[in-house]
Design brief:
Elements lengths: L3 E5 L6 H24 L19 H22 L5 H23 L13 H31 L7 H7 L2 H17 L15 H38 L5 E5 L6
Helix pairs in contact: 1-2, 1-7, 2-3, 3-4, 4-5, 4-6, 4-7, 6-7
Length: about 250
């Protein structure tokens, strides 16, 4: 008597969360631009993004942060079945932290700038959530892309793109840190005002995050097309889905 276990070789890529992730992150970036024109009193070169959540139209900025959290959450849902091994699981866990961080930034509004210590409880939570998202997403992106490129054959046709864009968010974050270290930190912890350009560097960093997310989600849609076509051909020809029969080592022949 032979005992067999049937396991799927591949798990289909879900394109609906990928499309939602693209739509949400593009909406977030569009709202950032719109708010610049709605609040001409705030110069984007030396006002942080979070300051748009204070005062008129603040609800739009808070909503935009929640939309960015939605984009990361949709990406998390899409990737959950695609990532394998320790590298992939760590990357997915970091992405989940970024989802929580982006949501927390939208829920808890920043204290007025320049920040005065001690911060309020809400202001402290805003800093914690925002910093976690800003710092961890580049490393999540790196681990996710490398894992997909090396361990998941569903993504074979996107391997080159995955490797080229793996460090894109890390580059944006590194540029932000380098600029701050050279031009902002030497001016002291209370550096704020015209000429202290603390506004553009994080915007550029988040723009690279958006480019990474859109590229990854789009590659997911591309990689799902041949897979769906193959499944349709199998159904038409009466073939069973691509599965691997694994024989139980303890079974008798």
């Amino acid at each position: 008597m032979t005992s067999t276990a049937v396991t799927n070789r591949r798990v289909a890529i879900s394109t609906k969360p990928a499309r939602l992730a693209i739509g949400a992150i593009l909406s977030y970036q569009i709202l950032l631009i719109v708010l610049i024109f709605l609040r001409p009193d705030l110069d984007p070169s030396w006002h942080t993004i979070s300051e748009w959540a204070i005062g008129p139209y603040g609800w739009i900025m808070s909503g935009a942060f929640l939309i960015s959290a939605l984009s990361y959450a949709a990406l998390f849902v899409m990737l959950r079945s695609q990532l394998q091994g320790m590298m992939g699981r760590i990357g997915l866990a970091l992405l989940l932290i970024c989802v929580i961080g982006a949501a927390g930034v939208g829920i808890f509004t920043t204290d007025p700038m320049p920040l005065r210590f001690p911060l309020s409880t809400i202001g402290t939570l805003h800093v914690i959530f925002g910093t976690s998202q800003l710092m961890l997403l580049p490393f999540a992106a790196l681990l996710i892309n490398l894992s997909l490129a090396r361990k998941n054959e569903n993504w074979t046709r996107a391997r080159r793109v995955l490797l080229w864009t793996a460090a894109l968010p890390l580059f944006g974050f590194g540029a932000f840190i380098l600029y701050s270290a050279i031009f902002v930190f030497p001016k002291g912890p209370q550096a704020y005002g015209p000429g202290v350009n603390i506004g553009w560097p994080p915007r550029i960093a988040f723009f690279t995050y958006m480019l990474w997310l859109v590229t990854l989600a789009w590659q997911a849609i591309r990689c799902s097309d041949p897979q769906q076509a193959s499944e349709r051909r199998d159904q038409t020809s009466g073939k069973r889905p691509d599965r691997q029969i694994v024989q139980d080592p303890g079974a008798r022949p």
